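Lab notebook: predicted structure, single chain.

Context: the supervisor wants predicted structures on file for every construct in the current expression panel, including those that have not yet been purified. This is the next one on the list. No modifications to the sequence; it matches the entry in the shared construct table.
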Amino acid sequence: MSEEQTTVPEAVQSEPTTEQPQSFVSTLPEELQNEPSLKNFSDAGQLAKSFIHAQRMVGQDKMAVPNNNFTDEDWKETFTKLGLPKSADDYGVNYNLAEGADPQPVKNFLSHAHGLGLLPKQAQGILDYYSQLETGAREEAEKNSALARSQNETELRQEFGLAYDKKVNAANNVFKTFFANDLAELKLQDGTPVGNHPGFIKALANMSEKFSEDNISAGQENTSAITPQEAQREIDKIMFDKTHPYHNKEHPGHDKAVKEMTDLFNAKVSMG
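Prediction complete. Output recorded below exactly as produced.
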């Protein structure tokens, strides 16, 4: 008789199940679980923080966030709450105008800024920026003007030599006699005032030679104050004139002639 084999059934292996974490919202009463505003909260802590923030905002002045549907009135109300003054005259900004400058452009800017809703701090910032630009431009212009004056004076001194003061004074007297004072301030294309341009001063100096000292008072003329070119012409005239006292040591005017010739040579080499 064969022994009956009993088969022990294998233990039924069940697949492990992963329990889904319970949603915070699902723990709330059923009538609240479908509230859309609660979908963004993952736990009670987030909900508590939101509640505290909302409580702090109670009683504070609220303002709608601007959007594409805002009307002019909506914008005006928003800017007013942010601090827009009642009128352009109430901005209270500071702006340093240059002496004699017209304040109207600044007033026009503030009027336009008020229409755009710029706050006082923004308007002040823009004015400060342009004030810096204006100051920089003015300082650069003054620097260039001083450099131009120096260069012009150097050119004239080289041209006139020892006669520089005489020629410039004569030119000034011609200008005062025949031209209006404001003409000197007219700017040439390179920005140089007419009154400082070497060519203009040379022209005036040449004009002075066409008129007598009775018509244009340039002061007592200094005979030694002549240009190097004029000095050379006088030297040549004396050297070729053998009857000149310079060539005769016995002549009473010889010493004076020697001094004159010395002055002429000094004037000739004044250009270096």
